[in-house]
């Protein structure tokens, strides 16, 4: 149970009711982090606009690379909500979610490409207690993805660190997006 309860639809104003309706249609249920952030209307609006803009702008990296790096952050931080939601997003993007079970062995597993290994290792380096990214690591990523790709990857990893740490601090746990218990979102 989260440390702060979700804001109920009955307590919501017009904007929040609309946001809940859109989220419910898009994901099958209102994401709990959104319903908890709803206690601060200004930050909820800012976060919603930010997330939509980041989603639209993140087109330089292959989706599998971006999503695996973000998923890795969620597992490193220990955010079960992020793992649950991220798995659903990957499934809906047509990505192979079975290999997520092997992510701890990414460096040697044939389930991951060279590009994916580089991105996951970068997520590890950025998500440690102390950032351990090296010049060589960034140079290799730049050769592989270009400067705009490195900036996108860095931004996505940093953003997921923020999401995962906030969710963990507020006690937000998995919501059943992958099991279908909370959300019955049809595959595209």
From TrEMBL:
GO terms for molecular function: peroxiredoxin activity. InterPro entries: AhpD-like, CMD-like. Pfam families: CMD. Residues 57-124 form the Carboxymuconolactone decarboxylase-like domain. PANTHER family: 4-CARBOXYMUCONOLACTONE DECARBOXYLASE FAMILY PROTEIN (AFU_ORTHOLOGUE AFUA_6G11590), CARBOXYMUCONOLACTONE DECARBOXYLASE-LIKE DOMAIN-CONTAINING PROTEIN. This is Transposase. It comes from Amycolatopsis vastitatis.
């Amino acid at each position: 149970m989260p440390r702060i309860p979700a804001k109920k639809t009955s307590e919501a104003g017009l904007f929040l009711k609309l946001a809940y309706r859109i989220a419910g249609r898009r994901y099958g249920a209102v994401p709990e982090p959104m319903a908890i952030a709803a206690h601060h209307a200004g930050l909820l609006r800012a976060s919603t606009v930010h997330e939509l803009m980041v989603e639209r702008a993140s087109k330089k990296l292959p989706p599998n690379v971006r999503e695996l790096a973000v998923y890795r952050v969620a597992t490193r931080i220990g955010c079960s909500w992020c793992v649950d939601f991220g798995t659903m997003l990957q499934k809906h993007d047509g990505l192979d979610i079975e290999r997520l079970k092997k992510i701890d062995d990414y460096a040697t597993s044939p389930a991951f490409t060279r590009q994916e290994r580089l991105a996951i290792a970068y997520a590890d380096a950025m998500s440690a207690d102390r950032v351990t990214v090296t010049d060589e690591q960034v140079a290799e990523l730049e050769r592989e993805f270009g400067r705009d790709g490195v900036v996108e990857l860095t931004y996505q990893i940093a953003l997921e660190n923020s999401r995962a740490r906030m969710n963990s601090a507020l006690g937000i746990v998995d919501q059943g997006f992958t099991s279908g218990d909370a959300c019955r979102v049809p595959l595209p």
